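Render this sequence as a predicted structure.
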Amino acid sequence: MPNPSPTSQQRPRRRGRRLRFAVAGLTLLGLAGYGVYYVTGGGAQQAGCTVAAGGGSDGTVLRLEPQQAANASTIAAVATSRSLPERALTIALATSMQESTLRNLDHGDRDSLGLFQQRPSQGWGTPAQIMDPVHSTNEFFDGLLKIDGYATLPLTEAAQRVQRSGFPEAYAKHEADATLLAAALTGRQPGALTCTRGDGGPVTTGDPAQVRKQLAREFGPQVVPRPAEGAAGGGTARARTVQVPSTLTGGAADRNGKRRGWELAQWAVAHSDDLKVEKVSFQDKQWRAADSGKGWQKSDTSAAETADGDVRITVAQ
């Protein structure tokens, strides 16, 4: 019997081998390119924030854009200013996640606006008021507190009684993420929230007066931020630093200041993009914009600064 024709058997096999080699080669090139992209910095990391349960050891990580993290931290600060429990914050965060994906939207269904998609025509305030995150959050909490036993209700039911949404079951899908985020923003999970600058480099000039103003407006009069001690003669870093006592009461924070301190510190990191924050330090930990990809690290502040227990927020110059 004559040998099989190379056209009928050998060529398909050769073509199959060539195809596999070609695919493998392209895959390796792709992986190599991926490695170069990140290792050499050919593609700078994107700005963003993460919240990791248990330090991320269990793989549960919530990723947010800087504006989403900032808005969430504002909602948490308003909850603290009103001495509300963490459950109230969780409900508010889940509601905003559903209504606006934690973005302060200037549009929506009919005349709906803002973080909670509130409608001027339904008495939530003027358009300008609703676009103010502090006002809109207070309006939401005003409605929530009118519900007897809201803290024991299913989240979706509590949210729906405030919002009167056409999709009342939609809030439930955000409960796990809202719970994780609330734990970080109230300081119950220290260091769980961190943010990364887009290029890992210096940021534009910030204004310590603006930091003090925003802290006082969002957290209320119980927070009394001040320039860092010795600012007048302590160099430019001190002049750019806002010092916030952590030994305050109210809200979900405990009275020893540790939990409140982490609440304030993570608020500052969440607002690092819009407030041009360069460094945040509390106790023996710090976050720096210049190496924000490393998250919270061992602090390089002096022993005296660490011992006083205050939160220090330094803006870029």
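Summary. Residues 64 and 132 are 20 Å apart (CA to CA). The chain has two domains: 52-186, 200-315.
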